[in-house]
Design goal:
Length: 231
């Protein structure tokens, strides 16, 4: 992470204020005064402000607007991972709470708080996810009722939980599901003879993707957004 961003996060100040601290020679990294805010710091660096050691306090929570072509694992032999998009100290300690496929875009939540992410991903907790879907073929109106009753997916013993489908146009819709089976949305539409050609996650629980985030951009979650998964 850039030093000026690290200072902003740990001290709760703006990047401009962090730049002033650096200019005034109030910041040391590994025992040396540093004035360059673009210096990259890692978890192993000893950063001090007027002799006070600075460290991240507590767990971290972020939302990311995932671009197409990025995967949600830490290591992949063929595709870039979402973690290369993060300018954070020790990104390897973060994990995705509810993965998306490489060709799926939209809302991804990242954290280093395992108990918190469990509330999102565990089948025991009903956490709704909302997706915008583009389809290869026209979508019959009766699909709404079919999804509401549950769909039999290939290789699955039980029907899917009831899902809400809102048809927006001949080949586009919004679907809300409350579970996270492998490739579930794609498999649900395949089960009714259609094919998903575009998939974008808009919402997890009550947390909506920030419209100001461009693909590849991210921001910390607000206290309210974090707490919404603990209710």
């Amino acid at each position: 992470m850039r030093l000026d961003k690290f200072l902003g996060t740990t001290l709760g100040i703006t990047r401009k204020e962090a730049g002033k601290l650096l200019k005034d020679k109030q910041i040391e990294v590994n025992g040396e005064i540093v004035k360059n805010g673009s210096l990259k710091v890692t978890d192993d660096c000893d950063v001090e402000f007027n002799g006070r050691s600075l460290r991240f306090n507590g767990p971290r929570y972020f939302m990311l607007n995932k671009p197409e072509g990025f995967v949600c694992s830490h290591v992949d032999d063929y595709n870039p991972t979402v973690f290369v998009l993060l300018d954070e100290v020790s990104p390897e300690k973060l994990h995705v709470a509810g993965r998306l496929d490489g060709d799926t875009t939209g809302l991804v939540l990242l954290t280093d708080d395992g108990q918190w992410s469990h509330r999102i991903t565990s089948p025991r907790h009903v956490c709704e996810k909302v997706y915008y879907v583009e389809l290869a073929d026209p979508l019959p109106e009766e699909t709404i009722q079919t999804f509401a009753e549950g769909v039999q997916l290939r290789g699955e013993k039980d029907l899917t939980r009831p899902a809400k489908l809102e048809i927006l146009g001949e080949r586009e819709a919004v679907i809300t599901i409350s579970e996270g089976k492998y490739h579930q949305v794609k498999r649900m539409f395949a089960a009714v003879g259609n094919k998903v050609v575009g998939l974008h996650r808009e919402q997890i629980g009550s947390v909506e993707l920030d419209e100001e985030l461009e693909p590849g951009e991210y921001r910390p979650l607000t206290e309210e957004e974090i707490a919404s998964f603990l209710k």
